[in-house]
Design brief:
Number of domains: 2
Oligomer: single chain
Number of strands: 17
Helix content: 25-40%
CATH superfamily of the largest domain: Zn peptidases
Radius of gyration: 23 Å
Length: 410
């Protein structure tokens, strides 16, 4: 079995965290100077390993083996959320680098090709999952033309030009070249820590269904309009939020989650009854039947709320991502490695967040591994994982990678 170098792994994670360091986390938004410097550093590390390194037209960084055999992609995304954690995405990127190194140092594994990769903009600064979606051929030029940064409105084309990527071709997957794809990630929740487990074998990635719900009432004077005749759009939005909180637990699955992310009132003045309220809402689950049940339940609650409050209602579904299930044989390889290295401290579990693996899985077999997040914290600069768990996760993934590649040769 390949033996990872624990000190080197932790050192490289901390080197990557210096690109955009912010308190104990990082601020490395997509195509920022810090992001592109980190990608060029990764490409240099790949070249040092003897891999063919290149950065494609959307910023994906590839380290391609020079052998003719089918390789195993291992990676994640390199950019971060704003003022966020040092491990989200970075963990899987450095795992890919370290596993490629360990295979190269292990005589029995030198003929097993690992292709480390760092995807771009999984964090949706411009386009959600842009790098992996581009790689599988799911991004048209028109989408790139129209995309802008969600924080400051910079057009994506301008950002690519500023990053030195204008005119650089985008890489497209050739499925026959790859055995599959493995991704490691911090859990971003507290299931592993709370259950005393150290490895999560990801079974599926949730579908995320998002909605814009608008109520229209009658805007009027807050002091002179009798309560009996009011049609308050703000009350309608609040009534719906409470109805969801009461009813959704009755129809949800065991791991369903839902969030009212924003309620805005118009005109939003203290002494004016809101004439319009917009509510941004989402729910997530890994089973399509549950998603469909929640969808039907939400529409019914919107209708009931409109009837109760006298407001008109409009519901628009703005996304309907399908859940994705990980490759069963790859799951077994990860689980078997976890059983050897962390007996009794691993569990199969779904992912409650989106990841590049659900996109790459459309073209090649894919699987994921989780390590614990301390206190379940992520997308914040206090995000962290114990060093021992970081090392264990990489060794489990390395062992699983060997099993997968040797199975390909049989």
């Amino acid at each position: 079995m390949p033996k990872i170098n624990a000190g080197r792994l932790l050192s490289d994670l901390r080197v990557l965290a210096q690109f955009g360091a912010h308190r104990t986390g990082v601020h490395r938004p997509t195509y920022s100077k810090e992001d592109m410097d980190s990608r060029r550093w990764l490409a240099q590390q790949y070249e040092t390993l003897g891999l063919r390194a290149h950065i494609d037209g959307v910023g994906n960084v590839f380290g391609m083996p020079r052998s003719e055999g089918r390789s195993l992609l291992i990676g994640s995304h390199a950019e971060s959320q704003n003022h966020a954690g040092w491990l989200d995405g970075a963990l899987g990127v450095i795992y890919g680098l370290e596993i490629a190194r360990a295979f190269g140092e292990t005589p029995s594994c030198t003929g097993l090709p690992i292709a480390p990769v760092a995807w771009a903009d999984e964090e949706s600064h411009y386009i959600p999952l842009l790098g992996s979606r581009s790689f599988v051929g799911d991004v048209e030029e028109a989408e790139i033309d129209s995309a802008v940064n969600v924080d400051h409105g910079l057009p994506l084309r301008d950002a690519l030009r500023g990053a030195g990527l204008a005119g650089v071709p985008r890489s497209l997957v050739e499925p026959e070249r790859y055995v599959g794809y493995l991704e490691a990630h911090i859990e971003q929740g507290d299931v592993l820590e709370g259950s005393g487990n150290r490895i999560g074998v990801v079974t599926s990635i949730v579908g995320i269904w998002q909605y814009s719900i608008a109520f229209r009432g009658i805007q009027n004077h807050a002091g002179t309009t009798r309560m009996a005749i009011r049609k308050d759009a703000g009350v309608a939005a609040a009534t719906l939020a409470m109805a969801i909180a009461k009813h959704f637990p009755e129809i949800a699955g065991p791991r369903s989650v839902w969030t009212t992310g924003r309620i805005t009132l118009e005109p939003g003045a203290l002494n004016i009854i809101p004439g319009r309220a917009e509510m941004l809402f989402q729910f997530r689950d890994s089973e399509m039947l549950v998603l469909e049940r929640l969808h039907a339940g939400l529409r019914e609650l919107v209708h009931e709320t409109a009837m109760k409050t006298g407001c008109s209602a409009e519901i628009k579904q703005t996304s309907a991502g399908k859940p994705w299930h990980m490759d069963p044989e790859f799951q077994t390889a990860i689980e078997s490695a976890a059983a050897r290295l962390s007996p009794g401290a691993y569990v199969r579990m779904p992912s409650g967040a989106s990841h590049d693996a659900q996109v790459i899985g459309r073209k090649v077999r894919s699987a994921m591994l989780f390590v614990p997040s301390i206190s379940g914290i992520s997308h914040h600069w206090t995000e962290n994982t114990n060093d021992a768990d970081l090392v264990l996760g990489c060794q489990v993934l390395a062992d699983a990678a060997e099993t997968i590649l040797r199975g390909e040769r049989k």
